[in-house]
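lol ok so funny story. i was supposed to be doing the assay writeup but got distracted and ended up predicting the structure for this chain instead. priorities right. anyway since i did it might as well share w the group, maybe its usefull for someone
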Amino acid sequence: MITIPRLTRVLAVFVALQAALFVLSAAFPPDMARAKRSSPVVLDHRGAWLRALPVENGRWRVRADLARTDPTFQKRLIAVEDARFYRHLGVDPFALVRATGSALVHGHVSSGASTLTMQTARLLEPRPRNLGAKLIEMIRAAQLESRLTKRETLALYLTLAPYGGNLEGVRAASLAYFGHEPTSLTDGEQALLIALPQSPEPRRPDRRPEAARAARRAVLDKMVRAHVMTEAAA
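and the output, tada:
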């Protein structure tokens, strides 16, 4: 039986932890420097794209605009990469349990636990892939959740995500690989743009077309399983 004094102590501990997290978050905020640096875009007198200028290290990082990014692509990206994106607080405990169970059964991680928010945190502050880095990603993801809306987080991911070579962001990738803005994308284009950030160099369509096709096919199958595409369309 839970008594009033015990409940009071639990609440006090919870409040203390929340206060400690708030202080730590304020003292060690996420580094948003990369989010502030994007390629300047040169437009003609009609507002049409002429060219973009690279940022540091010659990278093409064109800021994503969700209002001008295919809404079906956005829906499918979330369905495939982070189905509970709009419900979790940066870290998905269900995905963590699933990934842990998969690791115990198979002896290695065969099911990802990184949410889109955690992936965005990793893109803001790249680190070696290890347990310590994963824990920092979780903390940073929680910090991002307290600072950004879900749409701002999604836009940031689609600005920083790597697409092979010196391409960063869905706009740069769509223009480079398909020759058009990501306002309207085919099913195949959407699948490739979802697949590439997870392994950009091995899946580059301009250098490894077979690997790119296989990755695209795998994502199309995931879309069907996530009920955001019919089997006939896939």
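Residues 4-27 form the longest helix (24 residues). The mean pLDDT is 86.
back to the writeup now i swear
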